[in-house]
Amino acid sequence: MTDAAEEIAKALSKVGDGFLPGLIGIEFTGGGDGWTEAELAIRPELMAPNGFLHAGTVVTLADTACGYGCVRALPEGAQGFTTIELKSNFLGTAREGVITCRADAVHLGRTTQLWDATVKRRDTGKTIALFRCTQMVLWPKG
Predict the structure, then answer these.
(1) Cβ neighbour number for residue 63 with a 10 Å cutoff
(2) How far apart are CA 16 and CA 120, in angstroms?
(3) How many DSSP H helices and E strands does the chain contain?
């Protein structure tokens, strides 16, 4: 990873302090133009009562990776974004270890952005979930 990607990762990780991403322990491991990478250590508080990783934990990791990428890719003059649609397909789970996420921009338009993310087990590389979200770019009212 480049020094720039490491600096982006550090900055993105700090953004979540005091908010849900920081609360659950999401750490960014890389970032660049049109992509981010993050990871999350599994612990009991992130599990469902059935002993498996809670789907909301996986969605939060993927949505955070996509959302932070969206902020980095906003057009000049935009004031933010909001999610207008998200979809997850779960292919597996984990009970321990670390899960990773790679988010990539598919479309970076003036009014919308489309992001795809893949969540995997770090130890095996097995895909846990595929995720897609559409973001609406917010502009100042005027």
Answers:
(1) 22
(2) 21
(3) 3, 6
Distance between CA atoms of residues 10 and 6, nearest Å:
6
Q: In one letter, which amino acid is 80? A: G
pLDDT in tens, 93-129: 999 999 999 999 999 999 999 999 999 999 999 999 9
CA of 42: how far to CAs of 46, 57, 99, 139, in Å?
A: 6, 9, 7, 37
DSSP 53: B
For the whole model, what pTM was predicted?
A: 0.95
Other Cβ atoms less than 10 A from the Cβ of 56: the count is 13
List, in order of start, the domains of the chain with CATH numbers.
Answer: 3-138 (3.10.129.10)
Of 121, 1, 8, 7, the C-alpha closest to 68 is 8
CB atoms within 10 A of CB 67: 22
Residues 69/36, Cβ–Cβ less than 8 Å: yes
Instruction: Give the bridge partners for 114, in sequence order.
Output: 107, 134
